[in-house]
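agent> Task received from the user: take the single chain below, predict its 3D structure, and emit structure tokens. No templates, no multimer pairing.
agent> Plan: (1) validate residues, (2) run structure prediction, (3) serialize to tokens, (4) report one or two observations.
agent> Step 1 OK, no nonstandard residues flagged.
tool_call: predict_structure(input=
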Amino acid sequence: MLTCNSFLGSEPQSPCNLMPGLDADEEENADPSDERVKHVLEAFKKYDKDGDGMIDFVELGALMRGLAGSAAEWTDASIKVLLTAMDSDNDGKVVLSDFGLWLFGTQLSPMEESKLKTAELTLQASNAKAKAQSKAAAKAKGKAKAKAKPVPEEEEEEEGEDEEGGDEDDPEDEEGDDEDSDEYDEDDVDVKQLSMTGRNALWQKLMPARAGSAQDAAERMKTLKAPDPKRPEDHKHALLYLQNHAGADRELDGVAPKGADRKKALSWLKAAMSKISDGEKSYQLPVKWLIGNWRLWPDPDRKDEEGFQDLKALAVKKLDGIGIKYEKQYVENNIGQELGFIGEDLEIKVRPRQDEHIVMPEDRLGLEEQDEEEDDYRMSEAAYIVLLLSAVHAVDHLFQDRAKEICESVGGSVRAPPPKGFMRMWAKLDTDHAKAKSPKAAENIDTNRVAWIFQEPKQLRDAFAKAQEVFGPPVRIKNGYDPSFDALSDTKGYRNILANYRFIPGLTWGDLAGRSPEHAEASKKTNTAWDKFRQLLLDTYLNMGFIDEASMDDELQQYLKCSDAARRHYCSKKMRNEPVAIVVEIQYMLQCYFDMRKYTHTWYKIVRAEEPEALVLDYNS
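)
tool_result: status=success, residues=621
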């Protein structure tokens, strides 16, 4: 039983008073740890239905079965598994600090642990006082009745026994009877998985929304107006999908939340995307997590799924309207004559790949071999993505510094997006790179990328020539300014030049690892970048609804271990004298096309997805 002895005392208390030692005047400046501990305490209050200061088997069952977004079937047996998992000292009951330790896991700070212990002692004392007051009141009431009407001695004894023993319908007795009839076989129950699922579900229910997460999107959406004022009812259906987000749970594919209408949620989505295209960024996060919710897509691998095709048709219509406008400008300004010839003299016979420079080590970054061949293959591909991205983040600062210098020297401006994300590359394994040789992720030659923006065509030509002097000739080029390129059909009117180069900064992996004092500054930036990449990978998974690494499934935990192993690989003695080399991408664009992207990018992400699954993975990246 979850013992959280009447932390409310005999008087109703405000949220600030749930934290021992926190006065109302101090609430505004409260430590963040106060907030998280307060949420745990408030949950105990809400689900302690009988007010006895404990959350028992029945009450925990009510809590777990009422969780939004939980796919687990919380049977009596699974509730008992959770109770056992929470009982850290095996004394048969779970006190507040035990519950906090189980829920917070590695997220529990020493400060929060101390506050939970303090709150526990305070609440136990408060509960004892409340019980004493209740007992005294009952005794006084009994004496009053005795004066009014004499009661036989044996009846008094029975009443006293009831006071000491509690009600006949004792929840503990019910639980004991239930244990006899609902035993579970530990061999048939994945205790670790069940506990992990319970932790994640409760965390999302109890804790403040993580910035940028689906929970955060749901909270923000509550303050937004309906994007289509003619269909205000659509708003609540889209909100239900966000409040019941599937996270990484594929068992929820296409399972609409209770009370939610998918067609109305999709209608809201189209209207919100139109708002974003018009420049209203406040809808971006809710749109991201609505599209990235497996619940919205009943057949994620079907290209012809009705809702997906309807959304895609709208995106095509929007892009066509914008593209026609920009194609007129292309013709009127003679852009084809100014830039269409760039790169036509280059002879490029083979498409470059990243594994020409970034090779998977023999130990596969410590990746455990899987029983199923298909599982092993997929995880091996994912491990290579981690290896490649570790290199990408390590060198990005070097590439961006060099690129900025070249572009600005001819009067251009620079936009440096972050390196390509794990989930985006993962999605391409089954789409763009489905037929590529393994490792398929080596086809990603736009992992380090930069956009060069120019007001005049001459600036762009000068920058292309200078880049060739510094980086060497492109190893691949696609000139969208060529008059023969059908921009309306292929890119909905968007035109640019995409050029890939081999970036060889003249350093070794040993230099970046910190083995050369003369390159200490570059090494410092690289090690900082590795730290950030590891955190970025972790955040990607946490935003799916996990609490911490311990709460993730084994597959995701292995990818994080691969990140650590990749870093050790690049810092190893074997790589000390290996030259740093990677394929990078420069996008050459005129200002007008950079401006165009502000209106088209939202729709283009829909158009480029081949099926709902690719769309979900793209939006989760």
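agent> Step 4: summary for the user.
The CA atoms of residues 338 and 457 lie 6 Å apart.
agent> Done.
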